Structure to design on (142 residues):
């Protein structure tokens, strides 16, 4: 049998090289698509994490606002004190520290002082009441 021609051998080698290059190119396309999908999925998670971290900060701020004495409860501590109970006994009854009882009493005293210093009735914005600004200034001047 005769040996294959030199040009036939080169043609076969070129075909093999083209097939290998096409296979590599197809593999690279698949890898690139998988990489893009990966980053698209992880970037979405990072945005979601950032949003949740912001929400956590807001909730922590709300929790911090709830710490300390509650203004609406201070009047009840004041009522116990006015009834003649010492701070220690009030603290035991309400399961508070003596310092917390003192904070409630200070809060109660400041609320009483502020309500006595203002002769106008107190209105809150939720009820739709309240004095106009010029009326409030006149009351403060009197």
């Amino acid at each position: 049998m005769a040996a294959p021609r030199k040009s036939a051998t080169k043609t076969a080698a070129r075909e093999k090289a083209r097939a290998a290059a096409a296979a590599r190119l197809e593999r690279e396309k698949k890898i690139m698509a998988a990489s893009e999908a990966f980053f698209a999925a992880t970037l979405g998670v990072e945005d979601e994490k950032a949003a949740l971290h912001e929400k956590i900060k807001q909730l922590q701020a709300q929790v911090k606002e709830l710490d300390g004495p509650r203004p609406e409860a201070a009047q009840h501590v004041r009522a116990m004190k006015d009834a003649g109970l010492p701070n220690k006994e009030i603290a035991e009854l309400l399961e508070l520290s003596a310092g917390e009882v003192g904070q409630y009493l200070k809060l109660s005293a400041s609320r009483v002082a502020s309500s006595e210093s203002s002769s106008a009735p107190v209105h809150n914005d939720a009820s739709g009441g309240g004095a106009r600004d010029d009326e409030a200034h006149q009351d403060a001047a009197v």
The helical segments are 6-66, 71-82, 87-94, 98-117, 133-141.
